[in-house]
Structures are given as C-alpha cells and as structure tokens.
Amino acid sequence: MLRFLLAAGPLLVGCSGVPFLVPDTRTPADHAREIEPRCRGFDEAGASAALSPGAVDSVEPSVSHVKSGPNDREARPRGARIHVRPLPGFSPEALQRTLECHQARVVLGRASPVGDDPYVLAGHWLDIAAASEGDGLVVDVRTDDADGARQVLEAARRFAKPGKAP
Q: CA-CA distances (angstroms) from residue 24 to 49, 97, 106?
C-alpha cells in the first residue's frame, strides 16, 4: 500500500530543503493494534446496525484526481463511497470509529467479516472516513492500491445489493 508519511527530521531533508517522503511500512495488523486501544465501547454487537446492508442507501466509486499533464487531471479509483441512512445514536465520528474498530478486530482475528464486507480487505488496511451528507451519512472506504480499490467497490456494491436481507 502506498501511504506516505512526511518525515520532517533534519536528517531526512534533501539538499533543496524539501523533506523526503518515507513510505508507510506498517502492516494491516500494525494499524489494527494502533486503533485497538480506542475501541473500548465500540464492540461488534454495537456495530450490527452499521454493518447491515439495510443501512445502505447507495454506493458509488471513490476517486482521487491526480495531475496527469501540465493542464490535465486524471481520476484514479480509490474504493467506495457508501451512502448510509441516518442511524440512531451514530454521529459521523461514532460511525467512523465503529467501522475502524470492526476492521481492526477482523484483521486481528477477533471478529469475522460480514458477508461481502466492504470495510475489510484481506492484506490491506483501508482508510475509513465518515461524514454527514444531506440527510444521511457517507462512508469513504479507500486504499491506494488500484486492484484493492476495485475489490472494495465490488464488495460494497454486492453488500448493498437491493433485496439483500438485513
């Protein structure tokens, strides 16, 4: 996964004075262990409403636009934007933490993924961000890997398929 951390240490500044970008070499399990201490009170039972296909209104691709020429920008797939109905007791922050903790528990083997789970991808740590949008919420589930982004979008579409049991 191509995540980068900006290294601002004096030894990592190039001759031009611009800091080097250092690849993020943490594994999905490393990310999960970092999140886990913040998961007190966010258990799988409490996540059931957020992990229900019935909570999803719609799914669309998540993209980033990158410079592809002097005056051009190219859309790159990043994953899925999952539009969620308002859930009682879930602020965007609570929904985000619930889904991050679900991902951490699955990665660490403490929980099982739900069918077609769009919030977990084997071998990847997904960036999950929830925000208010209109009269509902949107969850952006992203990865830097193009194939992983396609897998996340496909899983989200299967997860939200109309007529799927909640």
A: 32, 22, 21
